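User: Sorry, what's this?
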Amino acid sequence: MIPLSVPYLVGNEKKYVDECLDTNWISSVGHFVDEFEASFASYTGTAKAAAVSSGTAALHLALLISGIGNGDEVFVPTLTFIAPVNAVSYTGAKPVFIDSDRKSLGISPEALEDFVSENCSFIGGRLVNKLSGREIKAVIAVNILGHSCMMDELLAFARKYNLTLIEDNAEGAGCIYKGKHVGSYGRFACFSFNGNKVLTTGGGGMITAPDVEDVKLAKHLSTQAKADDFYYSHDMIGYNYRMSNIQAALGLAQLENLEKMIARKREIHAVYEKELSNLPDPELFIEQSWCRSNYWFALLLLPVGKRDEFMEYMTSKNIQTRPFWKLNHRHPMFHDCSRGNTPVAEELYERGVCFPCFQGMSDEDIASVVSTIKSFF
C-alpha cells in the first residue's frame, strides 16, 4: 500500500529523543520545549510561539483570549476538518458556516461579504447576525491542504467589521503567501503537528501571535494557569494543554529539515502536474501565483459522480486516497447554526479526492500513482 502520508524522520529525531530519555526530561518541562518554540517563531516570522498539546487546543486558546464566549458567533468555512468548529463550540459560541473560495480552497471573502450584506447589521462597531440576534466577533481562516487563503482580502474584511482574524494553519506549516509565512497575518495562528502533517511531533500543536503578551497568556492558560509553582496557586481557569519535551524534541528535529521536506513534496507534485495535465477529465489542483504551497496532500477534482468509484479503484491498486471532510453544516449538532449559500464547497466535497504526496515517496511510488490514475481515466 502506498499511504497518503508517512512521518519523515531522517534528521536528529532519535538523537534528541534519546537525550530526553537519558536525562529523564520527558514531560512538559525541558530545553527542547523552549528551543522548539523559539525556533518556530523565528521560522514563521512571528513574535512568539507557545507549544501545546494539539492544533485544536491552540484554536481553543486563541478563541478564549480573543474574548469569544456564550452568545457570540464566529465565521468558519463549512469545508474544513471539524477542529475549528468544535473549538468555537467549546467556548459556548456558535459557528456561522461560509462557502469556499475556488482558487484557494479556503473561506471565501466574497461569500463572507454576501452573508453580511444579506443577513447582518453593523452598528456601533458590532456585526450582528439578524438571523440569530447574536454578535459575530471573529473569522477563522483555514489554510486547506497546505494552500493559503486570500489573506489580504480576509484581513480587509476583518478590519472593516471589527472582527478578530484567527488563522487555522493546521495543514500549512511552511506555506507562504506573497512572500510571508502564513500564520503571521491574524491575531493568532494555530498549527497542528499530528502524525500525518508535514512537520510532526506525533501529536501536539503551536499557537503564534505578533503580540508577545497574547502568547504569554496562551502559555499560562495551557499550563493550568499556575501562578505559583511551589504553592500551586492558580489565578484563572486553565487547561492541561502542554506539549511534552519528547514531542518538542521531535518537532525541533523536524523543523531543521522542513524546507528540504517541502522542496521534495513540491518536486513530487511537479511530476504530477507534468504527467496528469493532459488528462481530459480530472483537474489537478495547483497553487496560485501568490502562494507557495507545502502540498500536504495532492488533490484531484473528479467528474461529478466519479469520486467513490475512483477511490475504490485506487484502493484496489494499493494506493490510499481520501475524500474531503463532510461539510460541517451537515453534521447534526450544527443544524441550528446560520450559514450562507455554499455551492463551491458542495462542488469541492463531491469532486475532491486527496492522494499521496509525502516526502518519503520513491520515484517508483510516484510512477505507480501516475500510471494508476491514468489507467482509471
User: Anything to note?
Assistant: Residues 31 and 93 are 37 Å apart (CA to CA). The radius of gyration is 21 Å.
